[in-house]
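Note to self: keep these together.
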Amino acid sequence: PAEAEQAASKIIGMKIKDVTVRKVLVMEKVDIAQELFLGLVFDRDKRGHGLIASSAGGVDIEEVSAKTPEKIRSAFIHPLTGLSPYQAREIAFSLGIPQKAALETSRTLTILYDIFVRTDATLAEINPYVIRKDGATVAIDAKMNFDDNALYRQKRIEGLRDPGEEEPLEIEAKGADLAYVHLGGDIGIIGNGAGLVMTTLDVVTAAGGKPANFLDIGGSSSPEKVRRALEIVLKENGLKAIFLNVFGGITRCDDVANGLVQVLKKIRVPVPIVIRMTGTNVDLGMKILNESGLNLKTYPTMQLAAQEAARLAKP
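Structure:
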């Protein structure tokens, strides 16, 4: 125990990918003879579940796929029928491992699939799944990803969430009912609709800019939501410009414009704001913005607005 405490004290407090280590998992040392990979993924192309196994565990499966694809075995699992016992055995025995280990591996795959389905997972992998020198198998390390939209019925999993592992701005945005992802650039991106925001990121990047974030305000055009969006984006370090891209479908451009003007008269924005609007009541929305007396740069197309945002962000 004293040695474990000493070793753990060297790890706790370290920064790994800008995240501070706060906990250490202590596990029994295992005498390994062979490492395997077992995984289940949600396959959107085939509209079902995909089982992946490999006799080359202990490394990223992408690396195995690129260098030794012959070491990967896969099977499609129809979500209505689930993983059949014969599929699990077929995959396990195809790995070329001893019979005892293959039978244990097939049982592990069956259990893993049950967990994958019950927890609304999008990924469940054991890497490495090892065969010990005495012939027994054991899961050494595992990883799972879950469908965020299903967490309302996965209270136990939601309870495991560690805010210390997440971006503070992303946590704040979630509390304001905003979809936000930190990207690390210097141009703040705000849009209404996930597809529109994704496209905006691409267009800004093509223009030579570096997006600081992904922020989707959704279908709402309320001044409060616009205010919260601006406040969160302004907390990004090194921000040089903000690009607001609005498509007026259900949301009316004049409503967004009125909300934006109200907000900008109340909060100080130290960087230039570039706005592109199109859709319902766009002429009225542009008129409201251009006559607001605020220093706003408005453009009729996404490309022109992205080019201006990239220009403003250059040193």
